[in-house]
Amino acid sequence: MKFLTKNSIFFILIFGFYACTKDTSKTPLSVYCNIINEKLYSFSRLSDFEKKKFDELKQSRFHKYEDDFHEAAERFGIEWELLAAVAFQESQWNPRARSATQVKGMMMLTLPTAASVGVTNRLDPIQSIHGGAQYIADLKSNNNYGTSSGDKIAFILASYNLGATNIRNAINTIGKKPVEVTWIDLEGYLLNLKTSMDSENYSRGQQTVDFVERVRDYYYLLLAQNCNDS
To answer: What pTM was estimated for this model as a whole?
Structure first.
């Protein structure tokens, strides 16, 4: 399923529920939220174990930094749910996270990316969150590809994971006008991409596709929970 924007998701779900309800004026918000929660969770391809772990870490880790995610998202004009979903996929909201390739912190920024957005300490969670938000906003402003808002978000996420230059080169190889390229087109290209970073059982292109799809799943979970928290 393609990425949907927040407004599109809520419009579709609430419109469908209104159509089946005789007296909507007496229907409490909690009922709508339960429906939205159920539907958005059903979109997810995550296992029950993964959803449970996500819920547990949202309570134990995310709430420490929730205001920072909201502040950074508002400052750079992006959805806080998307920013938080990227952070969870990258580090499970662990500000001390590190990888073998020397990316670090809540948003797992590389040294060059961190420098480009003014982050001097990648293990500082506030710097990392704001730096990641700025980087996503920069990718968004420089993205000229895609036929829908969902495709555009997918391209931004793919660029976050694989690098903007690599995604731009991949899209240019597909053979369509930039505005005509879909996520399905890019996904197919990435799944067939061969690089020196590939292992025997897992390619770098597959990793990027998985990154996009998993961020989407966590984004849906946050949208669902956000309705109940409102």
So the answer is: 0.84
